Amino acid sequence: MVKAGEISIVATPIGHLDDMTIRAVGVLKSVDQIAAEDTRHSQRLLAHFGIEKPLVALHDHNEQEKALMLIEKVKVGMNLALISDAGTPLISDPGYHLVRLAHQHGIRIVPIPGPCSIIAALSASGLPTDRFIFEGFLPAKAVARQKRLMELEPESRTLIFFETPHRILESLAGIIAVFGALREATLARELTKTFETIRTDTLLSLLNGIKTHTVQQKGEFVLIVAGNTTASKQILTLEAERILKTLLTELSVSDAARFTAKITGIRKALLYEYALKQSLT
Fold first, then answer.
1. Please, are residues 217 and 243 in contact by the beta-carbon 8 Å criterion?
2. Coil/strand/helix, residue 41
3. Number of H helices, E strands in the chain
4. What's the pTM value of the predicted model, to 2 decimals?
5. What pLDDT, in 10s, does the model give residues 127-173?
6. What distance in Å separates the CA atoms of residue 102 and residue 189, rounded to the nearest whole number?
7. Three state DSSP letters for 218-251
8. N or C terminus: which one in the chain shows less Cβ crowding within 10 Å?
9. Collapsing DSSP states into helix, strand and coil, what is residue 55?
10. In sequence order, which residues have a C-beta less than 8 Å from that of residue 203 and are 6 or more positions away?
């Protein structure tokens, strides 16, 4: 099933063990070694499917060091599989350095498709699926998060984010502050697990819902936000530019954009982007 000197990128379940594919089990049983994000976590998965193979840890803190060592072994005939704690490797998980290095050394990479939380959530969201972007985790710090959201606000494609339990309320509130309370979104929680919930509503309703039911603040989240369908219809007028430039002499970029938006009715994100460029010139 596997050939010498190859690396297989193997997707594993994000929750429900029955989502493990027959091909994935066969590949993991056939390789010489398995690189895993957390060997203790992966050992339980492998034991469930009767897979007994040597494990090596490959995570964010050691990947650049371990990748070259593994590449050298693969070059002399070892076949290797890469798995993450859950889902498809490299999607907000380790593996990029290993795969890129493998390509540089002419090593064949074989993807073994399977579970992926962002695709599972998107398929069940009821939001547009023809064009979308995956943003991973938003910045943890409020200022950096606001800046990134300001950049994303005009985006017309569906937006997909990961979020953690201790930041979900803060992130939703931050998105509402930039995107508006009525933007449609989907909150997918604990996908494929016992307490899976998928709810599509306005951003404000989603925030109020998990505030009211605190148990909904626990677990792993995929947040999908509808794109901005009006972004391309608004332009910055000469009068708005004049007001904004005047306010920038006395106020921060964020405050100048906010007050100009109130005066002119132009979207704050568009004004913020222009003001940011002005402040850098």
1. no
2. helix
3. 11, 10
4. 0.81
5. 999 999 999 999 999 999 999 999 999 899 999 999 999 999 999 99
6. 35
7. CCCEEEEECCCCCHHHCCCCHHHHHHHHHHHCCC
8. C
9. strand
10. 172, 175, 176, 179, 180, 181, 182, 183, 184, 185, 225
Could you write out the DSSP letters of every residue in 68-98?
HHHHHHHHTT--EEEE-SSBSTTSSSS-HHH
Place of tokens 């064949």: 108
Q: What is the mean pLDDT of residues 238-244?
A: 89
Could you report the per-residue pLDDT of 251-264, keeping only the tens digit for each? 998 888 889 988 98
Strands 184-189 and 197-202: antiparallel
Q: d(Cα 5, Cα 27) in Å, to the nearest integer?
A: 14
Q: Which of 163, 160, 174 is nearest to 217 (CA)?
A: 163
Q: What would the two tokens of residue 176 be?
A: 């509402």
Contact (CB, 8 A) for 28 and 21: no
Distance separating alpha carbons of residues 28 and 82, to the nearest angstrom? 9
CB 7 within 8 A of CB 80: yes
Name residue, tokens 């943890």: 140
Strand order in the sheet with 55-57: 55-57, 33-36, 80-83, 6-10, 108-112
Closest CA to 16 of 90, 119, 117: 117
Residue pair 226/126 in contact (Cβ under 8 Å)? The answer is no
